[in-house]
Amino acid sequence: MIIGLTGGIGSGKTAAANYFSSAHDIHVVDADLKSRVVVEPGKPALQHIVDRFGAEILLEDGQLNRAALRQQVFSDPQQRVWLEQLLHPLIREEIISDLHSAASPYALLVSPLLVESGQHRLTSRVIVVDVPEELQLARTATRDQVSEQQVRAIMQVQAQREARLRQAHDVIVNDRDLAHLHQQVDALHQQYLAMLQEKEI
């Protein structure tokens, strides 16, 4: 069973995924990490990005300057569409390969664009980590040291909160402390184990 985990920027997806992994030994595949793998130096996708945006899109060590690329694509929807068409199929291949290696009772696919990219079609269930927008803005601006305006631009690209919640089978409400988040993960873990047992009977 593959379970998707998503939520807007600053919602606490990573904290939830880390706890599934550390407390319950669940295999976690992070789509964000896969998106870095496909643009590593020497990978064809990085060369395509340089051809389109110029060498100034690279850091001095030849790595992709993700902040510079983000600025380009979030200010121009056409550039964002081009980039997604290049990267999404490559990221999908990496994700599928990693999911197939899972040895835990179920695997978790963590992705901020789970719904928008169609990655939710790889999953049996979807968990949404939900948080009020004002809290999302405040957390992200503090964590990433970026302006509220940039956070809002990223939030515009991600599914709107209501649209994301419509796709959810399960919701983790992350508007309190970590202990509250962990309780909800524990409960979901037990629920998924029970579902898997039922399937075996």
TrEMBL record:
Highest taxon above the source species: Bacteria
E.C. numbers: 2.7.1.24
GO molecular function: kinase activity
Key word Secreted present: no
Subcellular location: Cytoplasm
Gene3D superfamilies: P-loop containing nucleotide triphosphate hydrolases (3.40.50.300)
Main location: cytoplasm
Swiss-Prot/TrEMBL catalytic activity: 3'-dephospho-CoA + ATP = ADP + CoA + H(+)
UniProt binding sites for ATP: 10-15
Pathway: Cofactor biosynthesis; coenzyme A biosynthesis; CoA from (R)-pantothenate: step 5/5
Family note: Belongs to the CoaE family.
Entries under NCBIfam families matching the protein: dephospho-CoA kinase
Function: Catalyzes the phosphorylation of the 3'-hydroxyl group of dephosphocoenzyme A to form coenzyme A.
Protein name listed in UniProt: Dephospho-CoA kinase
Organism: Halopseudomonas sabulinigri
